[in-house]
Design a protein that fits this description.
Elements lengths: L1 H13 L19 H5 L13 H4 L13 E8 L8 E12 L3 E18 L5 E21 L2 E13 L7 E15 L11 E11 L4 E2 L11 E12 L3 E12 L7 H6 L2 E10 L3 E10 L6 E12 L2 E9 L10 E10 L1
Length: 334
């Protein structure tokens, strides 16, 4: 069983070597869910709610089989720069007995109102830029404790009102999740350990007015682990860690590539299925500016409704306007 899981991990890892360029539609790398964000943006090996279609579609195979879930999120994106930059996420998950879990999400990114000018600086008017991605996902258990998942998505990027500013593409997400059988391995009742990996946004370059040159998707590989030492009606604790790498510019040399990555770790503690406290740490060196620092979050659950909030660090060159951005999400289970 362990060899089978390691083989699946190897397939996901080796698939990364053929990708190299500068990514477009980078808004697709924004992580949804105030809950995962409060845990250091580390959720690949957990992926047990309506955001699973983003983090790891294989997690849909192990979601709660007694009910379905919808998650809504709204967050301002770089409020230090403008007030019309915002991110919206709608996620869904449902378990189908005998099949696995299905899910999906709609992502909307507002890039705000832009001013159009001539080369001489004469103002011509304004236009609106935005991006939309639609995803459908499925995850199923292929062996005891082992699941695989597939997500298919359509992407539309509206940067400018003329054809050369409108881009489209499609992509796939591939994921694997393994619940390590601790008891069968002779480790006793010491909790649950999950291992996971996911390849995201695998697809052709974005086509802007028929031109696909230098417009690759933000193809990403993520690996993660999650440890659940105890899980009861009274208290629950989850500890997670993720490592991710954008599969762009991978020809910069090993030293540079090793430094350009993103990792995070965090924990979530639930009391009486009512109140959750979360904390974590994130370190991201893949952008122009480094993002690093602690994350914080909390959740309140009652009668099928769950409200979550998170505070995550912003880029170092924007911290003069505040060190944290906030995210809020509402989940409904029925």
């Amino acid at each position: 069983m362990i060899r089978r899981v390691l083989f699946l991990f190897a397939i996901l890892s080796f698939a990364s070597v053929s990708f190299a360029s500068t990514a477009s539609v980078v808004w697709m790398t924004i992580t949804p869910g105030a809950r995962p964000n409060g845990m250091g943006e580390a959720f690949t090996a957990l992926a047990d709610d309506a955001t699973a279609s983003y983090w790891n579609p294989a997690g849909l195979a192990f979601i709660d089989s007694t009910r379905q879930e919808i998650t809504l999120q709204h967050s301002n994106w770089l409020p230090q720069l403008a007030d019309d930059l915002y991110y919206e996420f709608l996620g869904y998950a449902k378990y189908l007995e005998g099949w696995g879990g299905i899910g999906g999400n709609i992502t909307f990114m507002s890039m705000g109102e832009q001013l159009e000018t001539t080369s001489e600086g004469i103002e011509l008017g304004t236009f609106y830029s935005y991006g939309v991605a639609l995803t459908g996902s499925f995850g199923t258990e292929v062996a005891p404790g082992v699941s695989v998942g597939l997500g298919l998505k359509f992407i539309y990027d509206h940067l400018y009102y003329k054809d050369e500013g409108k881009g489209t593409s499609f992509a796939a997400d591939l994921g694997v999740l393994y619940h390590v059988p601790m008891d069968e391995m002779g480790l006793g009742n010491i909790g649950q350990l999950n291992l996971a990996a996911c390849l995201s946004n695998l697809g052709p370059n974005v086509s802007y007015g028929g031109n696909t040159d230098n417009n690759p998707l933000p193809r990403t590989i993520r690996t993660g682990l999650a440890y659940i030492p105890f899980d009861s009606h009274l208290t629950r604790l989850r500890v997670t860690a993720d490592y991710s790498k954008l599969l762009t510019n991978v020809d910069d040399g090993f030293g540079t590539e090793f430094k350009e990555n993103k990792w995070g770790a965090g924990a979530e503690f639930w009391y009486y299925d009512l109140l959750a406290l979360r904390a974590g740490y994130i370190h991201d060196t893949e952008g122009i500016s480094t993002i690093q620092g602690p994350t914080f979050g909390a959740g309140l659950q009652y009668s099928g409704f769950q409200l979550d909030m998170a505070f995550i660090p912003v880029e170092e060159n924007l911290q003069g306007s505040g060190k944290y951005n906030s995210k809020y999400s509402l989940s409904v289970r029925f």
